[in-house]
Amino acid sequence: SNVGASPPPNVLTSAPRSSPEVGAAAKNSRQLRCVGIDDEDLPRMIHNILFSHYLNADPCSRSVGKTNEERAAFVDIVMGVRNADLSYTEGESVPADVAILDQNIAELDEPPILGSLLCAQLRSVGFRGVTCILTGAPSAQIAQLRKLPGVDLAFDKGAGLPVIAAAVRKLHTERKAGLHASTNNDGTCRP
Question: What pLDDT, on a 0 to 100 scale, did the predictor assign at position 180?
C-alpha cells in the first residue's frame, strides 16, 4: 500500500534539486520594485502586466503618467521619495530596481517629455537600477537610444514581454553581482 507515500514530483513544475537557479532564487528572494511611465492607458497596462506576470515584481510596482502630476513626480517615484499615488514615503527612501519608460511621453506638451532624458535625469540623482525605453521608433533609432547616457535597454513596443523581462532580469542580476557597473563617474551608463 502507498498510504503515506509522497506523490511523485511534477516534472513540469519541479526544479531539479541540483539546479543552480534554486540556490540563486533563495538568495535573491526579494521581488523587484518596478516603476513605469507612459502617457497612454494601454502601454501603462502593458507595463503593469510586464511587472506582475513576467518580472514577478513587488505588488507596489506600477506604471504612471496619466496626469501631469504623475509625469512631474516620476523621478521622485523611481527614487522612492514618493509613492505611485503621489503621497510622500515615510522613512528611508528606497529606489526602484527597474524603470520602464516610453520614449515619447506627452508629445504635445511644450517641451515634450522624452524617456531618454528622464533616464539621464535618473542617473544624475543617483539611480543605479535598470532603465529600459519602449518605443515605436524604427530599429535604427532604437539602436541610437541604447547608446544614450543613462539608457540601459531599448526595445520596440511590439517586442515580446518575455524577451524584455529576460533582458531586464539579466542586467539586474549582473548589477547585483557586480558584474556590470551601472554608471561612469559622469553618470553615463557603462556598456
Answer: 52
